[in-house]
């Protein structure tokens, strides 16, 4: 069996107050990308998850172990992950892989969303990877219609920027909005995105509060954003906690030309493409 795990793009990310457990309230729009990892699943003498691109234990391994602890009775499985999503790049590759493993138990294990939440804030949204408005600490998901065609060019920036460090820097410099402001922003995002328009139709709302702290830790993010702007992108931002920079294009040809001009690191994909 082959299973796909689409990358996830944060079109925006608004940071709010800290939750009781130390996690931040947020508002975001997640959209799946045509960029995806591929998982090959086969029966084996014992459970095994192989992902050469990620040394040590990964989220997919943990997901399989939790399924077993919940009583999932499938035969032992060998899961081989072919990584296409850059690692530690803010594109949700690990979460996507874990969610793909959880989908294997669909209809056989109760409360997959609850299990997903124990693995990471981004995992629940990736069980059914569709465009959605995300609120709370990542647990409140409201499905949005598929947006009008648009293309994404990614500059991963080498990955490796710690999410915890970016959030800690955001706290240090005092970034954070009130819950009332988050609720108002969520309403505005829903009002426009629910019309199935391209994200290019509402650029003023595509704000990432983590850009400033991420750039302070990794100044080259700012340089990548400038290069993306010069390539002709209709909108440029950083996704998630970085370091990946993305540009949105209305035209596939223009996106392909921009990706070629940005060098071998650039990745061309289509936005809003899930399973």
Would you write up a description of this structure?
With 275 residues, the chain is α+β, with helices and mostly antiparallel strands. Strands 1, 2, 3, 4, 5 and 6 form a 6-stranded mixed sheet that branches. Strands 8-9-7-10 form a 4-stranded antiparallel sheet, with helices on one face. A hairpin with a 4-residue loop joins β5 and β6. The longest helix is centred in the C-terminal third of the chain and has 15 residues. The two termini are 15 Å apart. The mean pLDDT is 94.
Biggest sheet architecture:
6 strands, mixed
Rounded to the nearest angstrom, the distance between the terminal CA atoms is: 15 Å
Helix content: 25-40%
Q: How many DSSP-defined strands?
A: 10
Give the H and E element order. Answer: EEEHEHHHEEEHHHHEEHE
Radius of gyration, taken over Cα atoms and rounded to an integer in Å: 18 Å
User: What percent strand?
Assistant: 25-35%
Spatial shape: globular
Q: What keywords describe this structure?
A:
globular, alpha+beta, four-stranded antiparallel β-sheet, 275 residues, 10 strands
Question: Topology, pairings included?
Answer:
Elements lengths: L1 E17 L5 E20 L4 E3 L8 H11 L7 E6 L10 H11 L8 H8 L3 H5 L4 E4 L4 E4 L7 E5 L7 H10 L6 H15 L17 H7 L2 H11 L4 E4 L6 E5 L2 H10 L5 E4 L5
Parallel strand pairs: 3-4
Antiparallel strand pairs: 1-2, 2-4, 2-5, 5-6, 7-9, 7-10, 8-9
């Amino acid at each position: 069996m082959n299973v796909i795990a689409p990358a996830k793009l944060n079109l925006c990310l608004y940071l709010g107050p800290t939750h009781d457990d130390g996690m931040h309230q947020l508002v975001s729009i997640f959209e799946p990308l045509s960029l995806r990892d591929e998982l090959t699943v086969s029966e084996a003498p014992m459970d095994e998850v192989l992902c050469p691109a990620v040394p040590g234990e990964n989220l997919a391994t943990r997901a399989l172990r939790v399924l077993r602890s919940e009583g999932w009775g499938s035969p032992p499985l060998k899961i081989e992950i072919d990584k296409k999503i850059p690692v530690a790049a803010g594109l949700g590759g690990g979460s996507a892989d874990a969610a793909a493993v959880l989908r294997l138990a669909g209809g056989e294990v109760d409360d997959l969303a609850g299990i997903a939440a124990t693995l990471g804030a981004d995992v629940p949204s990736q069980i059914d990877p569709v465009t959605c408005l995300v609120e709370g600490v990542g647990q409140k998901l409201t499905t949005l219609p598929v947006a009008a065609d648009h293309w994404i060019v990614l500059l991963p920036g080498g990955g490796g920027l710690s999410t915890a460090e970016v959030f800690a820097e955001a706290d240090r410099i005092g970034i954070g909005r009130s819950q009332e402001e988050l609720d108002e922003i969520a309403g505005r995002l829903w009002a426009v995105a629910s019309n199935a328009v391209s994200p290019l139709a509402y650029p003023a709302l595509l704000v990432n509060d983590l850009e400033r702290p991420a750039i302070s830790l990794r100044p080259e993010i700012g340089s990548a954003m400038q290069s993306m702007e010069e390539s002709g992108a209709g909108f440029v931002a950083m996704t998630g906690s970085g370091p990946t920079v993305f540009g949105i294009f209305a035209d596939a040809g223009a996106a392909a030309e921009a990706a070629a001009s940005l060098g071998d690191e650039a990745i061309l994909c289509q936005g809003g493409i899930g399973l």
